[in-house]
Write a structure and sequence with these properties.
With about 300 residues, the protein is an alpha/beta fold. It has one domain: Spore Coat Polysaccharide Biosynthesis Protein SpsA, Chain A, CATH 3.90.550. It contains seven helices and 13 strands. Strands 1, 2, 3, 4, 6, 7, 8, 9, 10, 11 and 12 form an eleven-stranded mixed beta sheet that branches. It has a two-stranded antiparallel sheet with strand order 5-13. Helix 1 packs across helix 4. The longest helix is centred in the C-terminal third of the chain and has 16 residues. The chain starts with a strand and ends in a 9-residue tail after the last helix. About 40% of the residues are buried.
Length: about 300
């Protein structure tokens, strides 16, 4: 039985948050959200961690983050830069925005040859989520289950911010709990006790509180890398001159489902999710980690 790998996306700009969220001390002893994620991943049986970071934070990241975990688990990292493009494509000189989560995952090709999970570095997912993902991935065979992908689903109402709009991958599943469709909504918020998404044309779409959403906690077979290469090339042909366009992983997964290349098992978790989309979210996260310590959910020292 091969242990799965955990790929952590930590190259985000943190523009709405106002700082580098990945190394922000939020726990009782200065722990970062990544500290909690890796603690949960090790307990759940993951065997390797790979980070996706930017060159501009490489030195700080190596010093403050990567070196911390080496004695507990195998660690590695890759760089995501805007000019890391397939042969034949050139990045517009004016572009500073990263190409998105799909591009970030593609950067890890060559570092991962096992089933692997993907998470955002600035999101807290909870120990139960890591355990059910690890259990599912270790139950699969690389040779027999190349179509077997998965995702952790949270209820939409448990993933909102009190301080602004959020982006969520809204999911539709069938009776066997396989993903049928995932649609990215980019401006979700609570207004007058209703959860709504603001559309580009100025209209609103009402969403149910228990709607299952993806928080970018995915489980993948390494076949994903080849699919992402093909889809990213197609994306660039359409969007290379669009300075704001991003290649989101939900777009790629939805395309692969519709072309019947993969099956995505929807795994429900009882874990709480929370993040720091905005700086104002920070205090709530700090208070939650303090509560976790008092309730004995996490120890005083994670490492």
């Amino acid at each position: 039985m091969q242990q799965p790998t955990l790929l952590i996306l930590a190259a985000g700009m943190g523009s709405r948050y106002g700082g580098l969220k990945q190394i922000d001390p939020l726990g009782p002893n200065g722990e970062t959200i990544i500290d909690y994620s890796i603690y949960d991943a090790i307990k759940a049986g993951f065997g390797k961690i790979v980070f996706v970071i930017r060159k501009s934070i490489e030195e700080d990241f190596l010093q403050l983050v990567l070196n911390k975990y080496k004695q507990f688990i195998e660690v590695d990292y890759v760089l995501q830069e805007v000019d890391s493009l397939p042969q034949g494509f050139q990045c517009p000189s004016e572009r500073t925005k990263p190409w998105g989560t799909g591009h970030a995952i593609l950067m890890a090709k060559g570092k991962i040859d096992t089933f692997f999970a993907v998470i955002n570095g600035d999101d807290f997912y909870g120990s139960h989520a890591f355990q059910i993902m690890s259990d599912y991935l270790t139950s699969l065979s690389l040779t027999k289950n190349s179509r077997s992908y998965s995702m952790i689903a949270y209820s939409l109402s448990r993933t909102l911010s009190e301080n602004g709009t959020v982006s969520r991958g809204v999911c539709t599943e069938n009776d066997e709990h396989f993903l049928v469709q995932i649609k990215e909504f980019t401006k979700i918020q609570k207004i007058d006790n209703r959860i709504v998404n603001s559309n580009l044309d100025g209209t609103y779409e009402i969403l149910e509180a228990d709607t299952p959403v993806s928080m970018n906690f995915w489980g993948f077979h390494p076949s994903l890398f080849q699919y992402l290469e093909e889809l990213f090339i197609a994306f660039l042909k359409e969007n290379s001159d669009n300075l704001q366009a991003e290649f989101y992983i939900p777009f790629a997964i939805d395309a692969l489902i519709k072309t019947d290349k993969i099956d995505v098992k929807v795994l429900k978790t009882k874990s709480d999710w929370f993040g720091v989309t905005y700086y104002e979210d920070r205090k709530k996260v700090i208070d939650t980690f303090q509560r976790f310590l008092k309730e004995g959910i996490y120890p005083l020292s994670l490492y």
